[in-house]
Amino acid sequence: MPRVKRGVQHAKRRANVLKKTKGFEGGRKSKIKLARTAVNKAGAYAYRDRRVKKRTARALWQIQIGAATRELGVSYSKFIDGLKKANIELDRKVLAEMAENQPQIFAKIVEKVK
Fold first, then answer.
1. Is residue 93 in a domain?
2. Is residue 41 part of a domain?
3. 65 touches 57 (CB < 8 A)
4. Does a structural domain hold residue 17?
5. 73: which DSSP letter?
6. Residues 37-69: pLDDT tens digits?
7. Residues 85, 79: Cα–Cα separation, whole Å
8. In a domain, 1, yes or no
9. Which alpha helices (H) appear in the chain, and where do they start and end?
10. 3-state SS assignment for residue 10
11. Are 96 and 61 in contact (CB under 8 A)?
């Protein structure tokens, strides 16, 4: 078998890892061993936080709806319960947006729920 030299692939692989660590601090951007672990962790955090982002968005919507309903004299939990009993199927994202941008319509929904 002829000898295969793999220097090109080796250099390319390292270069790709170092390219991903651009902007990192210290040896994590220049030392291959540190850079590899940094890239792996960054990928894991990115994957995890794409899901966490959805959770935090929902929590924010709940806070916004709660603040808007409290101004109109209803608690968040009673408002959500009333929506379910009145068969109003609006999700929290839409309700939060409505509370912020269209307070008159939101007030009418709250009155209907009361």
1. yes
2. yes
3. no
4. yes
5. T
6. 999 999 999 999 999 999 999 999 999 999 999
7. 10
8. no
9. 7-20, 32-71, 76-85, 92-101, 103-113
10. helix
11. yes
Instruction: Give the global pTM.
Output: 0.76
Residues 50-72 as b/e (b if ≥16 CB within 10 A, e otherwise) read eeeeeeeeeeebeebbbebbeeb
Distance from C-alpha of 36 to C-alpha of 17, rounded to nearest angstrom: 6
Give me the CATH number covering residue 15. Answer: 1.10.1900.20
Phi/psi zone of residue 62: left (φ > 0), alpha (ψ -120 to 50 degrees), beta? alpha
* Domain boundaries, position 18: 9-113
- The domain tally of the chain equals 1
Whether residue 114 is predicted with pLDDT greater than 90 in this model: the reply is no
> Residue 101 to residues 9, 39, 68, 106: CA-CA distances in angstroms?
55, 41, 11, 9
Amino acid identity at 1: M
CA-wise closest residue to 92 among 108, 107, 79: 79
Beta carbons within 10 angstroms of residue 29's beta carbon: 15
